[in-house]
Amino acid sequence: MEKVYVIINEQHKLFAEQEELLNQKFDGWEFLKVPAEGWTIEQQRTIVKTHFQRGETAVFASPVPHLLSTLSWSAGAWANCCGNHIPDNFAYCREVWVFHNDVREKKELPNGKIIQVVAEKGWQLV
Predict the structure, then answer these.
(1) DSSP per residue over 88-111, as a string?
(2) Phi and psi for 17 in degrees, rounded to 5?
(3) Distance CA 12, CA 9 (A)
(4) Is pLDDT above 70 for 79?
(5) Cβ atoms within 10 Å of 80's Cβ, excluding its own
(6) For residue 51, how many other CB atoms are within 10 A of its CB?
(7) Which among 22, 126, 30 is positioned nearest to 72, based on CA atoms?
(8) Does residue 46 sit in helix, strand or coil?
(9) Are the C-beta atoms of 6 and 33 separated by less than 8 Å?
(10) How many whole angstroms from its chain centre is CA 21?
């Protein structure tokens, strides 16, 4: 079974709708939690080497730009170059998904300022 990692900041949690989408799409998944202070580029390169070697899937719930770029490139390279024949020394991520939500809700702060926040409903896995 292919491994699915949900990449999320340790200070965040998934909305119920996001978990539902994951459960509908994948047979199983696990969190890869990003520390509150983030990862350096070297740490992200290590994550790629230790977690994305043989066709794992990444789902981004929190943005980690360098990791997103690296895994997206490897998924595209695998799909375009290797197909079903994967060289032994080729590390790759099979698929990269992100959570997206167009819906915003207005929220009033204690100081009276009104801001827009992402809604709990309206999530898509794209």
Answers:
(1) TT---EEEEEEEEE--EEEEE-TT
(2) -65, -35
(3) 5
(4) no
(5) 8
(6) 17
(7) 126
(8) helix
(9) no
(10) 13
CA atoms within 13 A on the CB side of 27: 3
In 2-118, alpha helices (H): 16-25, 41-51, 65-77
Closest to 62 in 3D by CA, of 11, 107, 113, 1: 11
* Neighbouring-strand partners of residue 124: 100
Distance of alpha carbon 20 from alpha carbon 23, whole angstroms: 5
Cα–Cα distance between 31 and 34 in angstroms, integer?
A: 9
What pTM, to 2 d.p., does this model score?
0.84
Q: Is 26 helix (H, G, I), strand (E, B) or coil?
A: coil
Q: 10 Å Cβ neighbour count for 64?
A: 20
Q: What are φ and ψ of residue 51, in 5° steps?
A: -120, -20
Domain definitions of the chain by residue range: 4-125
Distance of alpha carbon 78 from the chain centroid: 18
Give dist(CA 12, CA 102) in Å, integer. Answer: 19
Give residue-wise pLDDT tens across range 25-65: 999 999 999 999 999 999 998 999 899 887 899 999 998 99
